[in-house]
Amino acid sequence: MTNSDWTPDQPLVSIKDVHKSFGDLEVLKGVSLDVRQGEVICIIGPSGSGKSTLIRCVNALNTIDSGSIKVEGIEVNDPDLDKLELRKNVGMVFQQYNLFPHKTALENVMMAPIKVLKQSAEVVEERARALIKRVNLVGKENSYPGELSGGQQQRVAIARSLAMNPDVMLFDEVTAALDPETVNEVLLAIKDLAQDGMTCILVTHEMGFAREVADHIYFTDRGVIVEHGPPATFFTEATDPRTQEFLSQIL
Amino acid sequence: MNAFQQYFYDLAQTHPKWNFIYFYDPVQAWRVADGLWMTIQLSVVCVIFSVIIGVVGAWAQGAHSKTLRLVMQGYIQFFRNTPPLVQLMFFYFALGQFTPTYAPDGWVEVPIISNVGWAIISLSFFAGAFNVEIFRAGIEAVPESTQEAAEALGMNRLQIYIYIVLPLAFRVSLPALNNNLVNLVKTTTQALAIAVPELLYQMISIYNDYSTAQNACMLFLFFAYFLLVGILVLGMSRWERGMRIPGYGT
């Protein structure tokens, strides 16, 4: 379901002046950014700067107080929004993987297309096996999440999201909970996606990775976008003192 | 009389305190069998109803309607804070007076809910109240983040409840459910108070008629309940093992 006015040359995700508060705490104070089809953007910034909240608003897991978020022309900030329809087009991967622990890796990947898209099990299974191969987990199809390492679980989670054939993928600090040695296998899977032309919005602390895959980097602090730019210039020519301070701590 | 019966008949003659009358008197044997059958039926029916009450009640407790939640809370408090024996008597003697009657033979008016019926109702609600709390705890143990992942995949509330929350909650609930159902089976003996002819009732009747059989009847009761509950526990733990997910919750 796409809005008839939307054409692929317009931004796939368009965020305009978004405000969001939890109680008295205003976590987003007028954030705007555009993501074009096939573009990979990274949102970086200190903890509590509203990065995760922002991308959770894109698939309506959080509601926004004011402003506008459009995904393929569909206004997310609309009380009549069909959230389920929106989420069919927007995949999301979480920090804690959040796999269904009572389902095998293959069943995790197959569940949503069968239950939500009502596709036949045979068709879905073929696609699911291909996705598991793509994230390099052949042989783990029948393992339960509890039997997999963090990195393996996260790759299943990526495959699970991809099984819905989304138009945009949201990654919410997907390597933050992983052991250092398994971070790379997950980043490789994301990189493979990005090179394949998938539109991606990543919240991440992996600066090296951001520099490598991102088309555009946004630095947020205390609910606003302080600075942004393509990685080639962002890391070397940051002008804002807050960005400089953050980068100096991280790099 | 066969050799087995003869042995216990002779034993009763030589040792009057050990009169295993149900082993050689067919009439008493049938009373025991009837009692045992009634206890099994009562247990099975109450277990099923109480689990249904538990699942529906746990759902109602999480409902949006405040009235529904209050009604559930009232129900749980009432049945949890009063003795099951008092509940049985209240249902049968108090509520029983207000139930309509009918005359199956055209002469004698009998209430439409028999004492067995009241026992099933009151024991199911009694165990059901605990089951509601058990299932609610199970549902609360399912991480919000797991449900959120299902939400992000476009599943609706009902799909999330059926495919994600319930299967996980049920596994968490099983050990506590196990305990409560064991308790329920043992509590069926209290239906004696409203003259339900279950095992304890029949055994007491037997030793009221044959006072020398008292020890033998008591022994049989221990043995029978030990076995009944043992079978239930064995079945439940097998089920629990069968549902165990590799690498989860251990």
Provide keyphrases for this structure.
heterodimer, A: 251 residues, alpha/beta, Rossmann fold, six-stranded mixed sheet, four-stranded antiparallel sheet, 9 helices, 24% strand, globular, B: 250 residues, mainly alpha, MetI-like fold, two-stranded antiparallel sheet, 2 strands, 72% helix
Count of alpha and pi helical runs of chain A: 9
CATH topology of chain B: MetI-like fold
Order of helices and strands of chain B: HHHHEEHHHHH
- In spatial order, strands of the major sheet of chain A run 6-7-8-3-9-10
- Indicate the overall shape of chain A: globular
Number of strands of chain B: 2
Describe this structure in words.
The complex is a heterodimer of chains A (251) and B (250). Helices cover 37% and strands 24% of the residues of chain A. With 251 residues, chain A is of the alpha/beta class. Chain A has one domain: 3-Layer(aba) Sandwich (Rossmann fold). Chain A has a six-stranded mixed beta sheet with strand order 6-7-8-3-9-10, sandwiched between helices. With 250 residues, chain B is mainly alpha-helical. Chain B has a two-stranded antiparallel sheet. In chain B, helix 4 (84-94) crosses helix 5 (115-140). The termini of chain B are far apart. The chains are: A alpha/beta (251), B mainly alpha (250).
Quick recap of the structure?
The complex is a heterodimer of chains A (about 250) and B (about 250). Chain A has about 250 residues and is of the alpha/beta class.
What does the secondary structure layout of this molecule look like, with pairings?
The complex is a heterodimer of chains A (251) and B (250).
Chain A: E1 13-22, E2 25-35, E3 40-44, H1 51-58, E4 66-71, E5 74-75, H2 83-89, E6 90-93, H3 105-115, H4 121-134, H5 150-162, E7 168-172, H6 180-195, E8 199-203, H7 207-213, E9 216-221, E10 224-229, H8 231-237, H9 241-250
Chain B: H1 3-14, H2 26-61, H3 66-80, H4 84-94, E1 101-102, E2 110-111, H5 115-140, H6 144-152, H7 157-187, H8 199-209, H9 214-243
Antiparallel strand pairs in B: 1-2
Helix pairs in contact in B: 2-5, 2-8, 3-5, 4-5, 5-7, 6-7, 7-9, 8-9
